[in-house]
């Protein structure tokens, strides 16, 4: 009971913080962190709850970004329609990649998703609608629901907050649903889940598509906020970044990826200003995470809390 | 399409395949023993090319000296990396090995990018390997021909060492059952570290071979390594011979695609991977896992 109450308090405190934050920090920065958090959470659905490391999540993020940018800029679609198209496009890519990748497990799954997303990168490099190295620039932000002018920074922030929170809520619901329980069972012991009569591949594929769609949501929002969809969104480095965010925050926790996302974005911001090589520092963080705290920040806190309760 | 142009693309294809074969061979050897997918393989390939460049600029050492020295230097780097980092992950989920080596890749590439940008530095082939050679059925750039011969020798040598020598037998035994092998008095931990060093040295050797063809640049490895991952998925990681054969075969296929449908030459290996996954998920030479 008390833990339920403290959880509720935590959620309320978090919401209040998110409402106030754009008045304290630069709104675009907070939006960037929120998008990263959503992206990492979507990725974590696959790694933390499905036990499958995808090395190709940038493909979904980038595909949705292109769909959003193209539909709003060239077809004049409204914000919501672009968002839906982006999510649908990412899910469609997720279906194709998922069908192929879930045929193998573990390390092969990672290599296959990496290879397929690289293939998509080459396709986007060559197809004319992405405008190659330039990307789709000056994407209009448009109006949410037809009357909220998103070119205003705070309007954009609160609209984005609503969409991102809806995404978090969906992830939370998924993890705590019977579907999420089956997923965890598959992660912990796949043969047993099979022997209990679950169609393991179907569950994995569904989780993969959901994860892809939510990563797409993050990508589409990113295109609107930064008014740009570019090849950078689709690179393998970007897929690696989301892994680091999740690892840093805590694999298999709800809050971890959000915190990890915010940390990595902050780090990148700080490094970009300092002139230090960003990749090197990110790489060192990777190494440190893998060697020293594999549970991530939130995972360590949970483990510490349980040890304290136990003693 | 003229016969000569077709053959020229084929020659490029075979020599690209030679790089795929050498790199996927190293990946297969490392994965077989350490259960680690070495993401840093591409970065080490790049490191090999840069070390060759340094040896030339700083010490005035030529190409042939580099061909011998670079694998030793890069291999020693691999041994140190294994002792300092990878060794701590033995027995854990192989995903951590992938992530650690991914971090190593970012660090290595980041350092070279910091100092050299993304532009390449040219490295010329030795005088003896400039020009063309008449093979009877075609005329081929001599250096490409040399790459194919050298990599075929190295691949065969590695295969022979692992499948036909006593040390190779120890390696295979340790892959099969490390505990039992250790109980026979064989020092398996040292064997593992040396295997990583050897696999990495192979990538360093490939890097020197590649230096005169591609300009030496910080990103030369990372784009290659993802294609090599696809090659490894196609061939199945369990098999040394499979890695070599599929490496060469896919290089040739890529060469042909450049002739008949150039737009697809970047992605043909990935398309083949998708088809293989649909038809034979374990890979062409792989055992089901």
UniProtKB/TrEMBL annotation, chain A:
Residue ranges crossing the lipid bilayer per the database entry: 46-69, 81-101, 107-125, 146-172, 205-230, 242-264, 270-293
Compartments in which it is found: Cell membrane
Pfam families linked to this entry: BPD_transp_2
Bilayer disposition of the protein: Multi-pass membrane protein
Predominant subcellular localization, coarse grouping: membrane
InterPro entries xrefs: ABC_transp_permease, LivM-like
UniProt GO cellular component terms: plasma membrane
Keyword annotations from UniProtKB, A to Z: Cell membrane, Membrane, Transmembrane, Transmembrane helix
GO MF entries: branched-chain amino acid transmembrane transporter activity
Highest taxon of source: Bacteria
Family annotation (PANTHER family): ABC TRANSPORTER ATP-BINDING PROTEIN, HIGH-AFFINITY BRANCHED-CHAIN AMINO ACID TRANSPORT SYSTEM PERMEASE
Identification of the protein by name: Branched-chain amino acid ABC transporter permease
TrEMBL record, chain B:
GO biological process, one term: amino acid transport
InterPro entries with a match to the protein in the record: ABC_transp_permease, BCAA_transport_permease
Sorted UniProt keywords: Amino-acid transport, Cell membrane, Membrane, Transmembrane, Transmembrane helix, Transport
Coiled-coil ranges per UniProt: none
UniProt-recorded Gene Ontology molecular function terms: transmembrane transporter activity
Membrane topology term: Multi-pass membrane protein
Annotated protein name in UniProt: Branched-chain amino acid ABC transporter permease
UniProt signal peptide: none
